Amino acid sequence: MKKAVITGGAGFIGLYIARTFVEAGWGAIALDNLQPQVHLDPRADVAAFPGQLVEGDVTDPTVWSSLTAVDRYRPPCGRDGRRPVHV
Ligand SMILES: NC(=O)c1ccc[n+]([C@@H]2O[C@H](COP(=O)([O-])OP(=O)(O)OC[C@H]3O[C@@H](n4cnc5c(N)ncnc54)[C@H](O)[C@@H]3O)[C@@H](O)[C@H]2O)c1
Predict the structure, then answer these.
(1) Ligand 1 centroid to 12 CA: how many Å?
(2) In a domain, 23, yes or no
(3) Total domain count for the chain?
């Protein structure tokens, strides 16, 4: 199954993107730091997410490394900026 990594995926827009992917037969992984001002009930938001939710900050390189460990994630573009979007 193809999987999409959605940064900020637990947020308003990200959740709709995730649902769209899942309806299309993809898996969805949210990378989200669950900001308290957005997520008043983070446990409920994690439970509502239609896929895997990895808690972390997108600016933290170690989070991306852990994503690589749980899945074959490839970033949207490589250093040359030409790698295709694919996970
Ligand atoms: N009911 C409604 O109509 C409704 C509700 C909420 C928002 N909105 C609108 O939607 C728009 C905002 O939606 P959105 O989805 O962009 O914002 P959002 O705040 O809902 O989601 C952003 C997500 O990104 C995460 N995030 C932020 N910084 C991060 C970081 N450094 N690393 C990882 N995750 C990080 C947050 O925790 C959050 O889950 C606004 O225009 C707002 O007015 C509408």
Answers:
(1) 5
(2) yes
(3) 1
Cβ neighbors of 46 (< 8 A, separation 6 or more) are 10, 34, 53
- Whether residue 85 lies inside any domain: the answer is no
> 25 CA distance to ligand 1 centroid (A)?
24
The pTM of the whole model exceeds 0.85: no
Q: Which two tokens stand for residue 36?
A: 């308290």
Indicate which residue's Cα is closest to atom 42 of ligand 1: 12
Give residue 21's domain range.
3-70
pLDDT in tens, 6-48: 999 999 999 999 999 999 999 999 999 999 999 999 999 999 9
What pLDDT does 64 receive? Answer: 84
Q: Cα-flanking dihedrals φ and ψ of residue 3, to 5°?
A: -130, 140
The reply to whether 75 falls in a domain is no
**Ligand 1 atom at shortest distance from the alpha carbon of 15:** 15
